[in-house]
Design goal:
The protein has 433 residues and is α/β, with parallel strands linked by helices. The protein has helices at residues 16-23, 76-90, 110-116, 129-137, 147-150, 154-171, 179-193, 200-209, 241-246, 281-289, 308-318, 357-362, 378-390, 400-413, and strands at 3-8, 29-32, 41-45, 48-52, 65-68, 73-74, 99-102, 106-107, 197-198, 214-217, 255-263, 266-268, 302-304, 306-307, 322-326, 336-345, 348-350, 364-371, 417-421, 429-431. It is 33% helix and 21% strand. The radius of gyration is 22 Å and the shape is globular. The protein binds inosinic acid.
């Protein structure tokens, strides 16, 4: 079996966790390849709502192996808390059995969180992501595979804490790093994770040679990509297809399907332009019916109409083979649904995203309008999805206006939909035929 890549096609929070959790039923491996605990994935299992920031969404499938890959930045304390929660609810300690951490993945230490807490410009999640990637690029970062070498090394601890403190002073922070504290931190991290630190790229390559199915689970979304997103209001990693295999330590030839996840509308957290952002009744509807609050920081998400300009950009970068549309149910009850097809920038109509943040902020959306479809309760949507899948009817069970809306999105983006999400439950997803 080849690898499948699952990516956010917008500004994150598209519902990747739910799709990965669903696909993981038939996968042997789920791999995170970039980012860290700035991501937040929610999986609804009956009455339980599980929230993950680091553990790949396949954790709920006992036969699925989990990898925190080469391109990630990992906060060991957050991972520990997530593992404790998982062990309490499931009785399973997956470390070294089915959970593996790449020896190349970088560590987020308290210093990185202190530095990130000084951000006022980007609206980061404050989890230390950017400062950890900065250390990686500056070639002074600490990787999981290096832990055994630095444990007990006084010279390393004192030089590292001196470097960190100089940076904290220069940045105007009152926080300081103590060499002894750093020593005990690395000793604890080493002891806690020793059993699961591995050459995960090699493990995945071997698994693929044995025809095992590997899912590469993206975090954030295309518009938050450090190169291809709305710079500088982006995250610090490459969130796109090009990094999926690289950040997992395997080659791109393994990939067959690239699924782009997109909400039936659009949301964003943090600062930066979002041309279709709504500040009206429709925006209020999307935010309240869609429960648009961040899984990681609890911040209110900004909501807007589906933006086909954004999606075409995401398609060009990622080459999606299919779209997984999520949260279609949230649009139920709106009389009119708008889709942004182009922008007006300084009096000119444009159909491609400008790369400059200030130009994007001046873009005004040009809309096409579609008729809405009725509101339904979540149990009604769930029953519809279950019936659609059991009877092999696909999206033919949806109201006609909803089917037309989906067809319009497919035409505008140029990619077919493979599934349509109509509620938070694991089974509230209709497979397209
Ligand atoms: P950072 O990734 O914490 O550095 O934050 C940089 C930008 O990316 C901010 O606008 C965050 O709100 C945004 N961001 C980071 N992770 C996510 C995510 O998982 N979903 C949505 N936005 C995110």
């Amino acid at each position: 079996m080849p690898a499948t890549v699952i990516l956010g096609a917008q500004w994150g929070d598209e519902g990747k966790g739910k799709l990965v959790d669903r696909l993981a039923e038939e996968a042997s491996w789920v791999v995170r390849f970039q980012g860290g605990n700035n991501a937040g994935h929610t999986v609804v299992l009956g009455d339980s709502v599980l929230k993950f920031h680091l553990l790949p969404s396949g954790i709920t499938r006992p036969s699925c192996n989990l990898v925190l890959g080469d391109g990630m930045v990992i906060d060991p304390w957050v991972l520990d808390k997530e593992l404790q929660g998982w062990m309490e609810s499931s009785g399973e300690d997956p470390r070294g059995h089915r959970l593996f951490i790449s020896e190349r993945a970088h560590l987020i230490l308290p210093y990185h969180r202190y530095m990130d807490s000084l951000d006022t410009k980007i609206g980061t999640t404050g989890r230390g992501i950017g400062p950890t990637y900065a250390d990686k690029i500056n070639r002074v970062g600490l990787r999981f595979g290096d832990l055994s070498e630095v444990v007990g090394d006084d010279a390393w601890a004192s030089a590292t804490s001196e470097r960190m403190n100089a940076a904290l002073v220069a940045a105007g922070s009152s926080e300081r790093v103590d060499a002894k504290g750093l020593q005990s931190d690395v000793a604890w991290i080493h002891q806690t994770y020793e059993a699961c630190i591995a050459n995960t790229g090699l493990m995945l390559d071997n698994a693929l040679k044995l025809e095992e199915h590997v899912i590469l689970e993206g975090a954030q979304g295309c518009l938050l990509d450090i190169d291809q997103g709305t710079y500088p209001f982006v995250t610090s990693s490459v969130t796109s297809h090009g990094n999926a295999t690289h950040g997992a330590g395997i080659h791109p030839g393994h990939v067959k399907d690239v699924i782009g996840i997109t909400k039936a509308y659009i949301t964003r957290v943090g600062h930066g332009a979002m041309p279709t952002e709504l500040d009206d009744e429709a925006g209020h509807h999307l935010g309240t019916v869609g429960h648009e609050f961040g899984t990681t920081t609890g911040r209110k998400r900004r909501c807007g109409w589906f933006d086909a300009v954004v999606m075409r950009h995401a398609q060009r970068i990622n080459g999606f083979t299919g779209l997984a549309l999520t949260k279609l149910d949230v649009l139920g009850g709106l009389e009119e649904i708008k889709i942004c097809v182009a922008y007006e920038l300084d009096g000119q109509q444009i159909t491609e995203m400008p790369s400059s943040a200030s130009a994007l902020a001046r873009c005004k959306p040009i809309y096409t309008s579609m008729p809405g479809f009725p509101e339904m309760s979540l149990p009604e949507w769930l029953a519809m999805a279950v019936h659609a899948n059991e009877a092999g009817k696909g999206i033919g069970v949806l109201p006609t206006a909803a089917q037309l809306y989906i067809a319009q999105l497919e035409t505008l983006v140029g990619v077919p939909c493979v599934s349509v999400g109509v509620g938070p439950d694991r089974d509230a997803t209709i497979d397209c035929l």
